[in-house]
Amino acid sequence: MSRSIDLAVIPGDGIGQEVVAEGLKVLSAVLPQDVKLETTEYDFGARRYHATGETLTDEDLAALKGHDAILLGAIGDPSVPSGVLERGFLLKLRFAFDHHVNLRPSKLLPGVATPLAGEPQIDFVVVREGTEGPYTGNGGTIRKGTEHEVATEVSVNTAYGVERVVRDAFARAQARPRKKLALIHKNNVLTFAGHLWTDVFNRVAQEFPEVTTEYMHVDAATIYLVTQPERFDVIVTDNLFGDIVTDLAAAVSGGIGVAASGNINPSGQYPSMFEPVHGSAPDIAGQGKADPTATVLSVALLLRHLGLEAEAARIDEAVAADLVERTGLPARSTEEIGDALAARVAG
Amino acid sequence: MSRSIDLAVIPGDGIGQEVVAEGLKVLSAVLPQDVKLETTEYDFGARRYHATGETLTDEDLAALKGHDAILLGAIGDPSVPSGVLERGFLLKLRFAFDHHVNLRPSKLLPGVATPLAGEPQIDFVVVREGTEGPYTGNGGTIRKGTEHEVATEVSVNTAYGVERVVRDAFARAQARPRKKLALIHKNNVLTFAGHLWTDVFNRVAQEFPEVTTEYMHVDAATIYLVTQPERFDVIVTDNLFGDIVTDLAAAVSGGIGVAASGNINPSGQYPSMFEPVHGSAPDIAGQGKADPTATVLSVALLLRHLGLEAEAARIDEAVAADLVERTGLPARSTEEIGDALAARVAG
Ligand SMILES: CC(C)[C@H](C(=O)O)[C@@H](O)C(=O)O
Ligand SMILES: CC(C)[C@H](C(=O)O)[C@@H](O)C(=O)O
């Protein structure tokens, strides 16, 4: 039997190029001999937008669709107006490929600095909905630029969309030792969407009697994330609340330098996409200063998604060992960190 | 010349009763002889809702309108379905009295514990918009309870509403030593509302050349609030983002036990309302365990709003001194803390 991974690689803008190179290095090093890795690089992001005005065409989507998975570095540059690449590329891809499970683990590893006092135990995963809520782009503007301008944003939430992501989160909670799931929303103010989320959550809960559940308003959740982060095991939440709490979660569990994410289509109908939570960081781009760890951990999520659990675990262990070892040492370059991780997973 | 304050008092639910009693005690103690204080107590909240089904009637609003200001304890009880008192009382009042400046200072006082490591310097104020955004209650549900349910929430943003709160925030920044103002939004995703906020912010900025401005996405802002809180001086943001970042801000600057807020109508057309950021905490209600400090600090905001700056400053100083002194001592009761603060402001 021969196995192969057909991977689309999108380095993107800024430090995206540098961190993806190291991610691929570690991926090659960890794969067993019998797994063939084929990569196709795609040039998306600011450069292409400036050259052609395009962000992501139908042809691009058709090409990407043929791959087993996508590895993304970062997209975004100050030379492009805010929203153009976000809506035109990142969100367009998440919506086109129905990436409804946006998976963002937060684990404070030994040796890693946290802004929190004491020695908090942090090990949870956020399941953020990825295709609905305030991210749909519904809404509009009238009388733009005048004193009578009105701008609306419409959060769209469907039983179909909420149930599938809630079900995914329950299954993940069920598979973890603590079996806890928290729903985060703001159902006391956003009563239409909030009641839908809460009702679906409570209904699906009946199918998972072993899972302990709780509900929490998003404002209160930010308090718990800094005062009692050990409280969380699995969190499920909407697209916008998920965006906010996962950045805070990354901050308390070692920073966005080590935060990985997967934009997952569980059905496999479309390829899933894996990317570090951080952005393109144009201020440090091209200087070899970026930490590729978040990208390497995203590669582990990718392998796990493709069923290569042992290889994913080897990457997680290599990163954990590297983070302990780097404590107190002078900062290494992007490449040095990648080399160290590749050596560990190969050895 | 004789002066008087005609105050509406709404103790509300749970610990609201206890903390408001101490707030009034400190208020009476701080007022000069020549200022007459008249209070009228109103019974709103869970008890009244269960007894009459009412949350806030037109007659209630007419009665409240006649006062100079409102002091609120807390509203909310688990016996009332989520959203009923929030939308039916708290938000109804904020909208009816056009409380568009929701003012929430965050200051980490000496002696106060923070979940953050090190000794962060925290002293900023959030100006949260209070009458628009996702809080308008616009939206709805179709096919409720079925697998085809769709629920929407519409965030409504107007140039009128955004400009007045942005202008208020610029004026506050201008009056502070550091003169810094940060706009928090998510203009790369919520492009309709985000561009309105950003355009208005940049336009008003031209009238305040001394104020240094920055823009920050809400997700990034949560990171800065835990890694670099000293970065902030004044923040202006929309209703929902303001709800989220002010709870996080309260958490890092000593907890919601000391977080005060004002729901302000700057024109004076309607009375402004002052309340602690915390809720009714039914789990500790009636036990004398609640810390009345947040309510007492809300009384200081109330006095400042009414032009009694010296008295407001006396309360702030009394609280600062009390917080230093309580460090390491056994916990005092609600009443003991109120007595101590009243003694300080009177002395
Ligand atoms: C860049 C932006 C569109 C994106 C989001 O809001 O989802 C980012 O913040 C993220 O969390 O992946
Ligand atoms: C209780 C709720 C309606 C309220 C809000 O969301 O504004 C509260 O969280 C607050 O911050 O005052």
In terms of DSSP E residues, the strand content of chain A is 15-25%
CATH topology of the largest domain in chain A: Isopropylmalate Dehydrogenase
**What global shape of chain A is seen?**
globular
Based on the coordinates given, report the CATH architecture of the largest domain in chain A. 3-Layer(aba) Sandwich
List its traits.
alpha/beta, Isopropylmalate Dehydrogenase, 2 domains, 10-stranded mixed beta sheet, two-stranded antiparallel sheet, 11 helices, 41% helix, globular, binds 3-isopropylmalic acid
Written description of the protein model:
The structure is a homodimer of 347-residue chains. Chain A is built from eleven helices and twelve strands. Chain A has 347 residues and is of the alpha/beta class. In chain A, the strands form two sheets. A ten-stranded mixed β-sheet of chain A has the order 2-1-3-12-11-4-5-10-8-9, sandwiched between helices. A two-stranded antiparallel sheet of chain A has the order 6-7. At the A-B interface, helix 4, strand 6, strand 7, helix 5 and helix 6 of A face helix 4, strand 6, strand 7, helix 5 and helix 6 of B. One 3-isopropylmalic acid (IPM) sits between chains B (86, 90-91, 243) and A (188-189, 219). One 3-isopropylmalic acid (IPM) sits between chains A (86, 90-91, 243) and B (188-189, 219).
